[in-house]
Amino acid sequence: MDDVPKPLWNGLLSGESRAFTHEFWQVIEKSGMNDFIYHYVLLLDDNDTPIALTCFYSITTDIAIFAPLALRSILLKVRRFFPNFLKFRMIEWGTPITVSSPPFVAAPGVSPSAIIEHMHKLLMATAKAQGQFLIIVRDFEGQSTDLQARFSALGYHVVDSLPNTYLEIIWPSVNSYQASMKSYYRSKLLKHLRKNQAHEVRHQLVDGFDHLADVLCAQWMVVHKQADEFQREVLTPRFYREFSQSMGPRSKALLFYRGDELIGHALLLHDGSMLRWLYFGRNEATNDSLYLYVAHTVIETAIALGVQTLEMGLTTYSIKLDLGAEVRPIKIALRSTWRIINPFISLGYAVLNRPPTIHARSVFKPKNNAVQ
Questions:
Q1: How far is residue 7 CA from its own chain's centroid?
Q2: Do residues 233 and 62 lie in contact, with contact meaning Cβ atoms separated by under 8 Å?
Q3: Is residue 322 classed as helix, strand or coil in its secondary structure?
Q4: What is the predicted pLDDT for the residue at 229?
Q5: Burial label, 119 (beta-carbon count in 10 A; 0-12, 13-18, 19+)
Q6: pLDDT bracket for residue 372 (50, 70, 90)
Q7: Are the CB atoms for 238 and 31 separated by under 8 Å?
Q8: What phi and psi, each to the nearest 5 degrees, are found at residue 258?
């Protein structure tokens, strides 16, 4: 990323997500996660003026990443003897640690179709040159039907991925948020908050946390090793360090203490009108009330920061739904560089992967308005 002119790159953003900034991609690149190899693209017009930007990368990925539990248990046994079974190096077009839909930024008036067609040729050429048989385009959220159709016309198969969760922040205070909940969900929340209070759990919101990088990464690893829904990127202490130093006050950490002991954290990105909850970590893998307390504190932080939307992320859906989060589907597009395989890609994906179906919950009182 150091080879990409920062003024040209950031000059195209004009209010777009911080996940597209030069600084954010430097953090990702320098962090040393997994075996990522990154490619940065500036698209130019005939006058050599940048008109669009995007990123893609290659990585070794489990093609059964969303496997159902029965299949996952079989894979775990097989991989004791063959660790790389059903793991392949492939190309992904998108951002590796957060959701950005669509996966590119374009200047006003630039045709998305032209960008997609150009990138398709580049992705295919790169994949063939590197001997990779699969291309993944991620992620499609919200009003992206037209974009999905453009990829389908180029031979991609649009399939379901893990859904994302969001909470629209309409309350002026955390008290009004709690008051807007139906009694069942409010009493359930308050019960768990009281448990944490009884254990003297408290929290602190900080912007600078680079000095805690090793501790926070170790906490994240505890959660990562216990994950049974989704495992992919492996964070490093350098990721936490670079994220804090490079993103400045946009990077935030909620630190959770029991007495004077740091027992957990939530990593946040203040992304304009949105607060993104990126990661959670804790000292020990215990089934207690801490995660609910953390999730509620993230909501409290979003209200205090005055953002419009809180992105709560993938997995751990039950707790997030109990707190009022809305589930939004995510689609990805798959294409093989091998013509003989490509017609069967969606079938193979469906056999190996079962993204969960999540049903909405009616958490808030009817005709809910912000309560003073």
A1: 26
A2: no
A3: helix
A4: 60
A5: buried
A6: very low
A7: yes
A8: -115, 105
Question: Is 47 in a helix, a strand, or coil?
Answer: coil
Furthest-apart CA atoms within the chain: distance in Å: 66
How many angstroms separate the CA atoms of 268 and 261, rounded? 21
Q: pLDDT: is 321 or 75 the higher one? A: 321
Neighbours of 40 (CB within 10 A): 16
What angle in degrees, to the nearest 10, is found between the helix axes of 237-247 and 213-226? Answer: 120
Amino acid sitting at position 16: E
Q: Are 54 and 139 in contact (CB under 8 A)?
A: no
Q: Quick one: CA torsion of 269, 275, 279, 285, rounded to 10 degrees? A: 140
Quickly tell me which residue has 């950005």 as its tokens.
100
Give the full edge-to-edge strand order of the sheet including 201-206. Answer: 201-206, 251-258, 261-271, 274-282, 309-311, 164-168, 326-328
Helix (H, G, I), strand (E, B) or coil at 156: coil
Helical pair 22-31 and 237-247, crossing angle rounded to 10 deg: 160
Q: Which of 210, 205, 212 is nearest to 303 (CA)?
A: 205
Whole-prediction pTM: 0.92
Count the neighbouring beta carbons within 10 Å of the beta carbon of residue 327.
19
The total of other beta-carbon atoms located within 10 Å of residue 50's CB is 17
Do 106 and 114 form a contact (C-beta atoms < 8 A)? no
- Residues 77 and 315: their CA atoms lie apart, in Å, by 24
| Eight-class DSSP state of 248 | G
Specify the residue for token string 């793991």: 87
